[in-house]
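Notes, Module 5: Reading structure tokens.

Key idea: the token line is not a picture. It is a compressed description, and you learn to read it the same way you learned to read a sequence, by spotting repeated patterns. We will look at two proteins. The first is printed below with its tokens.
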Amino acid sequence: MSQSPSSDIAFTPSVKALQTRLGSRAQYAKMEARGEFRTEVSADLTLFLAAQRSFYLATATADGQPYIQHRGGPPGFLKTLDSETLGFADYRGNRQYLSWGNLLDNPKVHLFFMDYTHRRRIKLWGTAQVIEDDPDLIARLHDPMAEGVPERAILIRVAAWDINCPQHIPQRFEAADVADALAARDARIADLEAQIAALTQG
């Protein structure tokens, strides 16, 4: 029995039926054949994650009610642990525990990453578990640049991931990056003005 393509995690029978009816099934069947939904954490994905300051974490209740939560931290706070596993330290927040509660009933998750600077987005499917009783793991995932004390670890077992096209993604830049660029520009202007003044006086 042949193994189902990794993209089946997103392309369910209902999705494929719609693709067939609306004329895009052949295109995505070719994508499935090429195995474009990857299942392991690659070097390029690790490099991408090392630069990310935030992502969106989607969970669902036992009866399928979805919930999405923003997660943020220093660049690279979501860490690669091995070729199948990502992890991050969980800090005290508003103490609603919505995502955690959902994971107790339904471990399936979806992570959505937006890189506005380079107009890239990555979708990642997997399962997650919350670890409370492993201080070494929590310390390993803790980023010293993060605010607060880590209370637990959240591990993501990767099932599949895919890079989306850049269409409709607005280009935005981090404030710190803009400030650095402006400072470099201002320094260059000051240097050129000094050179002009020296030539004029000479």
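Here is the second protein, with the sequence above and the tokens below, as before.
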Amino acid sequence: MEFHEITLENGLHVIAELNPNAQSVGVGAFVRTGARDETESLSGVSHFLEHMAFKGNGVYTADDVNRIFDELGAHYNASTSEEVTQFYAAILPEYLPTVVELLAALLFPSLRQDDFEMEKKVILEEIGMYDDQPTFTAYETVMQAHFDGHPLGRKILGTTDSVSALTAEAMRDYHARQYRTGNMVLAVAGRADWDSVVDLARTHCSNFPTGRTDRDTSEPVIKGTTRFVTRPAALQQHVMRLAPAPPAAHRLRYAADLLAVIVGDDSSSRLYWELVDPGHAESAELGFNDYDGTGTWLTYLGCRPEATADNLERINAVYEGVNREGVTGAELEQAQNRVASAIVLRSERPMGRLGSLGSNWIYLDRYRSVQEDLDTVRGITVEDIGKLLSLYPLDAVSTAAVGALESF
């Protein structure tokens, strides 16, 4: 595989990892903007704007956009997180010119008033749908508790009140501020010709507005609160807990990935053997989430309400043991094998590499090859895990619980 990159005259980064043996190509536009870049009054605008992108521009109608993608047999979608909005498609190589043109159109939609009002109803229905999902409610609640007063505590979907009050004019202002070349990268992975990629980018993206929007990446002040969302009829209690972990650019973030696998993967982890395999809980997991300037350990417990307190004690005991004694060489080797396998299997699909290309450029401003990722994972030692735990011990600083319980 060969990596190429160029910065267009307007400041847009174009990157590609080309594989002549691939039978498809993935292309995506990654925008460094998300829920944390909003204000309270604009809460949910990034996700709403992602929806509006598919409503068309002066050249393509909404029907055109979806019809053309479907006619090409493309696998396409978009997503919004706390920090990144992305638009992407997997296609046969011969359709790359059409899809690059379409992606460029998606990034700069017309944002018509009638489309805005119609899509607002869709967003409000989506908020209601996710409010009915206890794990989603637990995640939103624990993020708000942990990042209280910090931009990362904002809901990706926004709230019913914020979305209802949002105007098309406010969205246009946000779009003009955030959708600039300094906040974007156009990425290609798979079978393509580099010169053709550059020509396509220059043809369809040279008119993108220039500039970059700053982001506050200061560490949040963690207050450590517990919040309950009581649903008396619930048969299962859902508990999520957050604690500080390494940020995206930290040298030990790969060690954090490995530790999460050792302690809290959904099978063959310490939490699995201690809680799930004996039947104490339906789910008990530890995840690692990294952001711009900070990160979190995310603990999830799903069990019968009456078993919650005992299971939280079991989790605390596991964490205390890890913090005190670290991990074994055998545990680390197994985790390295699992993570390395995931990296390799994902890399065999152009769309699997596309996400890594885009996120590494957004967060690190550089390219990481599959081999570099593998070497990094294999190079992590038991001592590195110890250093990680000394800086970011496993803990439960902020808690959210959704279910029948009002306390535990």
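Summary for the second protein:
- The chain has two domains: 2-205, 226-403.
- The longest strand covers residues 237-245.
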